[in-house]
């Protein structure tokens, strides 16, 4: 099966266009004020209008309340909510019912024992996103270019379809997929020149690498 890709944290027409042109299956918009990739709802709406129907729009949110989710979904026409905070399964299920929308739950990973949290979302999410656990003092729950030991996923019985994230770029993607068997990969900082600044050439290289797997 071909490896599908998500380019996350997009914020300009040029980088969004590169992601679409080079075959990203998913594009991600970040709605989190502390992130250098944060979008306001007007910018998100303008970008969403440029996305063809075959590319799915993912909104990345961290412990959002109902009103915030309502505004994000309406502004960007989101297909999927990626919950990147401490949202329990019950909250994920409520949001899925409220919006009739796909739910991805990020699971921060540093040790093998961290993977067990995925099973809690079996009836509440559509996908699990395994991402590197950030330091306790960090302001961001992801998007810091960190990676975890991919070998932790070897032999793990996944409770749901899943995606691999955390420090992925064009140079290490083949190794990451080879070790984990991931068929969906997500990158943000790996296609940037500095935090929040995406690079069209890096996006193209990442997507080209994925297309060769």
UniProtKB/TrEMBL annotation:
Entry EC no(s): 5.3.1.24
Reaction equations catalysed: N-(5-phospho-beta-D-ribosyl)anthranilate = 1-(2-carboxyphenylamino)-1-deoxy-D-ribulose 5-phosphate
Entries under InterPro entries matching the protein: Aldolase_TIM, PRAI_dom, RibuloseP-bd_barrel, TrpF_fam
Keywords: Amino-acid biosynthesis, Aromatic amino acid biosynthesis, Isomerase, Tryptophan biosynthesis
A Pfam family per the record: PRAI
One BP annotation, GO: L-tryptophan biosynthetic process
Pathway assigned in UniProt: Amino-acid biosynthesis; L-tryptophan biosynthesis; L-tryptophan from chorismate: step 3/5
Annotated ranges, domain N-(5'phosphoribosyl) anthranilate isomerase (PRAI): 6-208
An MF annotation (GO) of this entry: phosphoribosylanthranilate isomerase activity
Cited Gene3D superfamilies: Aldolase class I
Family listed: Belongs to the TrpF family.
Official protein name in the record: N-(5'-phosphoribosyl)anthranilate isomerase
Source taxonomy: Bacteria, Pseudomonadati, Pseudomonadota, Alphaproteobacteria, Sphingomonadales
């Amino acid at each position: 099966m071909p490896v599908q890709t998500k380019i996350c944290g997009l914020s300009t027409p040029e980088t969004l266009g590169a992601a679409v042109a080079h075959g990203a299956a998913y594009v991600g918009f970040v709605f989190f004020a502390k992130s250098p990739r944060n979008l306001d709802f007007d910018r998100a709406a303008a970008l969403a209008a440029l996305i063809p129907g075959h590319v799915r729009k993912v909104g990345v949110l961290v412990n959002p309340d109902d009103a915030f989710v309502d505004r994000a979904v309406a502004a960007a026409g989101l297909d999927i909510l990626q919950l990147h905070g401490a949202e329990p399964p019950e909250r994920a299920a409520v949001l899925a019912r409220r919006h009739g929308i796909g739910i991805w739950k990020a699971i921060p990973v540093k040790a093998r024992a961290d993977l067990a949290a995925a099973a809690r979302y079996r009836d509440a999410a559509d996908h699990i996103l395994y991402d590197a656990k950030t330091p306790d003092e960090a302001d961001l729950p992801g998007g810091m270019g960190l990676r975890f030991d991919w070998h932790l996923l070897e032999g793990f019985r996944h409770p749901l379809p899943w995606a691999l994230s955390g420090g992925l770029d064009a140079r290490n993607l083949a190794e990451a997929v080879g070790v984990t068997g991931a068929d969906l990969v997500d990158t943000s900082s790996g296609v940037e020149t500095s935090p929040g600044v995406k690079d069209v050439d890096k996006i193209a290289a990442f997507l080209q690498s994925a297309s060769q797997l």
